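Two proteins follow. First one:
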Amino acid sequence: MEFQLVKSSQEPLFAEALSLYDEKLNISLYEDSKIFKQSLENKYTKDDYIFLVGIENDEVVSLATAHYEATTNSSFLIYLIAKNVPHHDQLMDDTLEEVKSEINKLSNQVHERDVNFIMFEVPKEPEDPDEETQTAIHHRQEFLQNHGFRKQHEIDYVRPSLKNETSSVAKDLYIKPNIELSKDIYGTSVKSNYILKYVFANKIPRTIIYQLLEQMKLRKTTH
């Protein structure tokens, strides 16, 4: 497998990657192509946004996207998906390692060291899952733990609803730390990544995002 970075929504790989995204997640229920285009092309995010595709036999087989937040030297992994093929898990492993490498390239350009941590939202675990759901949860947990991610319990994490911005959706937040995280570093970095993603990339009004930050007991910022 080879990897390529997409830098423009006009590149053929952009449309191919979104077809995989739609196949895996159903674009009608998740973020539409506008959000990806905004992330790639608006002046606040385009230089620190990673849109990475994995290619096998001239076909897009995986996708990872992430924002790098330079002020706190941290990153927000947004999507990590791979085609449903027999070696799906290997595609996921390889794609995650590659996107981590690209994040660290950005980090080293600014700070001459690797990123402090990477955060990743995942669906919240239901209280009483059925057997199929429990198996999927266990597989996800094992995958993330094998790559150094740990579920955090410090914040009752929510993200804005993708279809109704004034409401929120509870999520689980996983963190891959590369340094020992003090409370100040941790909270400030989560907040900064949250604003980068949802204010500057998604263009959700600041008032809505600040309300969610307050709900999570993260202080307002002067961004």
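Second one, unrelated to the first:
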Amino acid sequence: MVQTLGYPYLSESQRFNQYISCAKGLANFQMKIVYADIPNRGYMRIFGDNRMVKEYQTNILHNEAIEFNTTHALVIFDMEMDSKRSKGVLLQYEGKFIG
């Protein structure tokens, strides 16, 4: 489980880059966005092997599930400099080697 630095408190600096990889090779990743507070002009993007798997904008997410196969995953949460405050992100993930 990973989170932005200020989660769950309102903050103006809730940026987040989380790199995840499977050292053995291809893995099935199951991610659950337990909570994400994405303000206006902000976004959360999830990449698998350098391709975007999912993008979220301006929303509050609860228990959003994503599953994909990749060797490397990257989760980026950015509020943009002029966005209002956010409570940030709480993300749970698990990766299982599949070959």
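SUMMARY FIELD: The longest strand covers residues 27-48. The chain has one domain: 2-97.
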